[in-house]
Amino acid sequence: MSGDTAGVLHGELHDELVAAMQRVPELAGQDMTLTALTGGITNRNYRVDSAGMRERFVIRLGGNDTHLLGISREVEHAATVAAAGVGVGAEVVAFLRPEGILVTRFIEGTPMAELDVHAPHVIAKIADSIRRFHEGPAIPGLFIPLRIVEAYRALAVARGVVVPPEYAQAQSIARRVELALIMNPLEMLPCHNDFLPGNLIDDGVRMRIVDWEYAGMGDPFFDLGNFSINNNLTEDEDAAFLAAYDATETPRADRLARLVLFRVISDFREAMWAVLQEGISTLDVDFKAYASEHFERLLANAATVRFTRAIREVAG
Q: Which end of the chain is more exposed for a tag (fewer CB within 10 A), N or C?
């Protein structure tokens, strides 16, 4: 994957990783340089360079207690393999058990953060890659966002974290959404569930997707709403995005409404993810402010006429 670097790795961790890489045939016996890649909050990623190889690789290490966030490294591995198989992910070189270290080939390309995500051709390219994965083979694991939110809350409370007062109002909104969705369920498809800008790379031909740790079978509209809200798409851009995804000139009103609802649900998951991180993460990140930002946006969007209309449209 492409990404900004944060310096060459030295010391004990460097030695441990180099030793582990001896179990990877492509890297065994090589004189390696490991460079930290920036951008991740939960995990640590290192690019592997060697004077004896033209190819470069990426080592991915999980963060502390990430299983509490609903992350399974086995599912991440399976999803990454599936994504590579349909041409939208990085090729998996090795998965080292029991450490849970994932080794992939480095994707040469332009990070989405350097692109104009609001450009129609970029939106269409991203929609195409998401659809390709959704149409691919099933993967292990489930992703049910509202059950995940509830689990995050319980785990946070058990660790002494004070749950923000906005949670109760957000939960009430989410129950309205869930009732509407139950009235019109969709088939569960393989989903990525974490479309932050840092997880997309344009290789010049296709938009490649990395970071599959939250992947699982779920409602495909979580991916669409998640991408939309995380990248601040406008209403017109949502319509263009869904039209590209559905390969149609004009998206159906009920499907566009479903995307609108999942924009709100995405922020609920993101906010409670940060609340739980307050109790488990050792990183120097202001997770309280992060949660507050997403709760604020959730409540603002849920108070709009657009959201109210979407509830009625999806519920039928």
A: C
